Every structure is written in C-alpha cells, then in structure tokens.
C-alpha cells in the first residue's frame, strides 16, 4: 500500500468514525475540529483592519499604522486596482458603504479553501482577544462568544464555502444572531 493510499484510508476511516459519533458533536466541538484542520487558513480579528493583515500576508511591508504614508500601502492599492481602503473592501469583498461603515464594531472570521480563495464572515461585536493581530481561529477563544445556534449558523456557511457548495453558501445571506453576512469569495 502506498503512502498516499494509506493516508486516504486513514482519512476515510476517521470520516466514518465522525459520522458514527455524530450525535455527540456539538457546534463548539465541530468548530474546534474545523479550526484544527484549517490551521492558519482560518483567522479571526478586527474587521476594519483585515485589509492590512491581507496585505501583509501577500508580502507587502506595512508599518503598524499603514496609512501614515510610509511602507508599501500605495503599491498594494495600485496592485489591487483600488484607490483607498473603502474601495478595497467594496471591490475585493463586495461590501457596500453601509457594510463598510459597520466594520469598526465587527469581528471578521476569514477562511481560506484549498484553492487559496477566501471568504469573510462578519459578526457584531468584538469577539477577538488581540486587537493588534489576527489569530488562528483555534487559538482565539472566539467560539466561546457565540451560542450553539449562532455558531451552527456560522459553521454551515463556512463549510458550504470550504466544500464548494456555493449554491447553499449564496442562499445563506440572511443575518442570524450576531452574524451579519459574508463577503464574496476573493
């Protein structure tokens, strides 16, 4: 048996075990598992500062206060084809002016799929611990800020995106509890 097929067999058996134990899974535990599987591909932080985390992840050198005029923020804007921060949120994430204005009071959860596409989910309130940086979802304590119903609504949307069920993902646009919506895939 090759390493690849041995690994596939183990994954298949784990998936089967998860199905068999389905009645024991609660949203908080499911989020822990999803966070472990995704690692740094699931992050949480201040929604209004996500643009800077995204730019840094793309390799741009940005100082702690990126709009102070130093660093590579101008190059980032030019490469992204935008004029400024609100323009980036509109063109990249699909946010209108009203949604953009709400960002300072929101938390963002961003997941990245295997094809390196991202989707952002916006929630009311400050549900992160580190205002200066983005944390992996697994390390953030984020799940403790949501009820099971709210977490289940978020999980269903995240999984729809991550598994390629875009029809379901696009249909799930209504606000539920603190969940205020999501971006387009970017």
UniProtKB/TrEMBL annotation:
This is Uncharacterized protein. It comes from Eggerthella lenta (Eubacterium lentum).
């Amino acid at each position: 048996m090759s390493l690849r097929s041995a690994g596939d067999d183990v994954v298949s058996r784990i998936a089967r075990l998860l199905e068999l134990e389905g009645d024991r899974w609660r949203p908080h535990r499911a989020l822990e598992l999803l966070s472990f599987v995704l690692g740094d591909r699931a992050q949480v932080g201040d929604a209004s500062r996500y643009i800077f985390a995204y730019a840094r992840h793309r390799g741009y050198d940005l100082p702690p206060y990126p709009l102070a005029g130093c660093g590579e923020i101008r190059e980032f804007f030019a490469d992204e084809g935008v004029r400024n921060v609100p323009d980036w949120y509109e063109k990249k994430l699909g946010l209108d002016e009203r949604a953009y204005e709400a960002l300072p009071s929101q938390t963002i959860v961003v997941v990245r799929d295997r094809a390196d596409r991202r989707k952002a989910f916006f929630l009311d309130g400050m549900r992160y611990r580190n205002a200066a940086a983005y944390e992996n979802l697994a390390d953030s304590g984020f799940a403790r800020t949501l009820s099971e119903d709210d977490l289940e609504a978020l999980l269903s949307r995240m999984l729809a995106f991550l598994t390629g069920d875009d029809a379901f993902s696009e249909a799930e646009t209504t606000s539920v509890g603190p969940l205020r919506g999501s971006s387009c895939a970017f």
